[in-house]
Every structure is written in C-alpha cells, then in structure tokens.
Amino acid sequence: xxxxxxxxxxxxxxxxxxxxxxxxxxxxxxxxxxxxxxxxxxxxxxxxxxxxxxxxxxxxxxxxxxxxxxxxxxxxxxxxxxxxxxxxxxxxxxxxxxxxxxxxxxxxxxxxxxxxxxxxxxxxxxxxxxxxxxxxxxxxxxxxxxxxxxxxxxxxxxxxxxxxxxxxxxxxxxxxxxxxxxxxxxxxxxxxxxxxxxxxxxxxxxxxxxxxxxxxxxxxxxxxxxxxxxxxxxxxxxxxxxxxxxxxxxxxxxxxxxxxxxxxxxxxxxxxxxxxxxxxxxxxxxxxxxxxxxxxxxxxxxxxxxxxxxxxxxxxxxxxxxxxxxxxxxxxxxxx
Length: 336
Fold this sequence. Notes:
Elements: H1 2-12, H2 15-62, H3 70-83, E1 91-96, E2 102-108, E3 135-145, E4 147-148, E5 154-156, E6 167-173, E7 193-195, E8 208-209, E9 213-215, E10 241-251, H4 257-260, E11 269-286, E12 289-291, E13 302-308, E14 321-322, E15 331-334
Helix pairs in contact: 2-3
C-alpha cells in the first residue's frame, strides 16, 4: 500500500508548475487587455476633445460675414485639434462644410513621437493583437437668432449695457440713462428703453424678431399680464438666470424707411437689431414685480440689476435662426 501511494504522488509531481504557467499567460493577457483598453479610451477622449475644439473653431471662423474657404477651415481645425491632444498630435481626417451652418470635424490617432496612425507600444502586441486606430467626430452649428421666445418684455438701446463683467443697474425710472447718442442716420435715440407689447392682453408672451418692428406698451408701468413674470414667489427661476434682452436700433420716428421698410401703427415701435445676454440678479419695477435682496435700488429707482454677458444667447431661447449673416449675434454650439 505504501508503494502505491508513493507512485501516485510521483505521477502528480510538476502539475502545479503547469497550472501556474497557464494562469500566468491568462493573467498577463487580462492585464494587457485592461491596460490597452484604458489607453484606447484615453485616446478616444482626447480625440473627442480635439474634434469638439476643431469644430467650434471652424464654426467660429466660418460664421463671420465673409465666410471661410475649405483650406482655412482645415487649418484652424487642425491647429485646435492638435492643441487639445496630450501629445499635441492628432490626424484631422476631414472637415465637412457641406451642410449650411455646420462644420463637422473627424479626428483619428496620430502618435506624437513616431507620427504613426495607430497606438504604439501596446501590451496586447505580445498576444499578437493588431495595432489600434481610434477616431472621433464632432459637429458644431451656428445660426443668427431671429425670433425670441424666452425674453423679458423690455427692449434697450445698446448704450445701456456696460461690458466690464460687473453687475450694474439698468434704470428705467429715477435716473435712466438717456442714450442720446446718434444712430447711423444721425438722429437722436431717445429714452433708452421701452416695454414691448405682449402678444395678448392676458399673458406676457412677447415675440420680438431681429429685423422687425416691435410695438411697445404705453407708459413706464409693467404691461398687463406681465406682473407674474417678475413676481419672485410665482416665478422664482428668474433670479440669477441669463435672459435674452432685445436691443433696438431705431424708433419708429427715426428710421430710414428705404432701408427698413414702413413702420405702421399708431403706437411707438422699435426696430430690433440684436440680442443682449443679461444675467439678472435683481429688479424693482412695480407692485409685486420686485426682487431686491441686497437693496441695490434706492429712492424712486426702477429697473434691472445684473451683468451684461455680451451679445450672445442660448439657442433654446429662440424659435428662428438664419445661417445667412444678419448683423446679429452668432450662436455657436455642438450638436453631436
């Protein structure tokens, strides 16, 4: 019995070594796969950043009134794509301008040391895995917004906005800036502000469109139906939000008819030229239309308080837009 037991033990000698050797191959392969998968994901993230930056830069270039050539779009996309890669190298495979108002940029792998179009020094090569090439695509869109759907029912002259990045009061009563500059027709722009007339007598929906005349509401009071918009207990989301404010260029009595058509109607009208982005922090208008937590308004002052953020706007604030330059602000954004 002792001899048989000894023989069985001798037959199993070396089995552990074989098992360890097999498992080492599996473990090395799994480790290589994990490392290489991480490298691929990291490369793809960089290439997506590169494509996003290239598309936005291309859209910014091509959205100006003069437009851009294919060569110009290629150059700016390549420069921004490279600067947004960790090794300052990526391949811009294509810059597509075929869709009006859009730029699509496709990037792919480029090794910053060897200039190879694939990921080098990958652990999986020990397992005879082929080299990997990663790519990404981004599309940026621009438009010139026309019709606003989420705007405050106030229009201001451009001189009311201070472009210094600081919050300021825009007064409509008790010291309002009188914007007595000359418009391009050498006529005085009076007032500095106007309430726009709501589309209906029961609500505060206001349609203001670039290149069109907007009818104004009489007087300095908040129009009927608009009090709730400025009531913080009813509309708490208004405070500290960024809104679009229509900016006017001409009043009805001061416009060159041959250029802007005929201004009709008995009420005063304002020609809307563009949109101002405004981060509204406080306001003092009338009655319940007041939100002034830090008491920035004193005496008879009425108006808005906030920060001018430039002639820009969120595309979601508009129902209309043109890819043809209108002289208005350009809205840029990634759509995919």
